[in-house]
Amino acid sequence: MIKRFAFSVVALFCTMMTGAQNNDVVSAVLQTGDETKMYMGVEALIKAYNDAAETGSVITLSGGSFNSPGNIKKSVSIYGNCFEANTINNTQATTINGDILFSTGNDETSLENIRLEGFHLTGNILVNQIKNLIIDKCEFSTLRINGNYAEEISVRRCYLNGLNSLSSDYKIVGLDFQNCFITGRITHGNEENQILVDHCILAHYGDYGHEKALYRNCIIRLGGWRSDIAAGATIKNNIFSVGSVSASIQEGNWFSVSNDNIFDPEDGTDFSYSAERTFKLKTPNDFVGTDNTEVGINGGNYPWNKIPRMPVVKSLKLDVEGKQLNVTYEAEVR
């Protein structure tokens, strides 16, 4: 895959000088078909979004901090470096400040085929009238269903608070959380909507209230006042620290398992999150899920992995034409 950029030599020199003095210089690259544009600074994501096509554009962010474009009304995908810094690879995290709302403002028109990957959002992801959204390897507060319809939303390998939608009018068709670390509640006002929670760690010290949820192959922390699984839910091959729950359909679960018998002591035995933890099980062969992989975030379809699918540059050529610096590079996705 060959890509070409054209920059002002003066602007590039100024950017390099600023970068030498300020580690907060950030960039966004907008790819629409064969056309590529680059933007600099904390407003780079907003500028790239404004220039994006209605469908099919991809924005790739460097490490550093960006302001959120707020309401996104285009089917644009956004990729970052990672959601937390990696000292081993010397990779800087990508942070987007604020909420992101996906909404066309028209209940008859849906945004489609969007992927978010590899960044930390300081706020919430809100969706309205959307189809085929994948959120992978991100950190954010809460996924909120903010309108009347959402279809095929998959949250994978994310660190988040939970799901929140109180209106019974809001409808979801196909929502799943896979291999996620979830610290809060999973609630949705429309009790007819089915929600899948698979191979996750649920660290909330309280209740999980959605009646039509299917919890399978998870490690679930419960305890304290109003701590339970909704009576209409289904639970299969989950590890619980408590002796029983109210879920109506139960199969293959492990109850009254202490923390010391869940996690590898060398990795930590509580339900706290840290960038260093791998959440390895103490005896993975003793806790096998419905898919014959180990229970928890290291089994399943998307084993825990926080490294985004960033492109690797294979060759790079520079050519000066007057005041323009032409950059040609060949890259492949790893």
What is the secondary structure topology, with strand pairs?
Layout: E1 2-8, H1 9-21, E2 27-32, E3 35-40, H2 44-51, E4 55-61, E5 64-67, E6 71-72, E7 75-79, E8 94-97, E9 100-102, E10 111-117, E11 120-121, E12 125-127, E13 130-136, E14 139-145, E15 149-156, E16 159-165, E17 171-178, E18 181-182, E19 186-188, E20 195-198, E21 201-202, E22 213-216, E23 219-220, E24 234-236, E25 239-240, E26 249-251, E27 311-321, E28 324-333
Parallel strand pairs: 4-7, 5-8, 6-9, 7-10, 8-11, 9-12, 10-13, 12-14, 13-15, 14-16, 15-17, 16-18, 16-19, 17-20, 18-21, 20-22, 21-23, 22-24, 23-25, 24-26
Antiparallel strand pairs: 1-28, 2-3, 2-4, 27-28
Textual characterization of the structure:
- Strand 2 (27-32) and strand 3 form a beta hairpin.
- The protein has a 12-stranded mixed beta sheet with strand order 3-2-4-7-10-13-15-17-20-22-24-26, covered by helices on one side. Strands 6, 9, 12, 14, 16, 18, 19, 21, 23 and 25 form a 10-stranded parallel beta sheet that branches. It has a 3-stranded antiparallel beta sheet with strand order 1-28-27.
- The longest helix is centred in the N-terminal third of the chain and has 13 residues, at 9-21.
- 6% of the residues lie in helices and 42% in strands.
- It is mainly β.
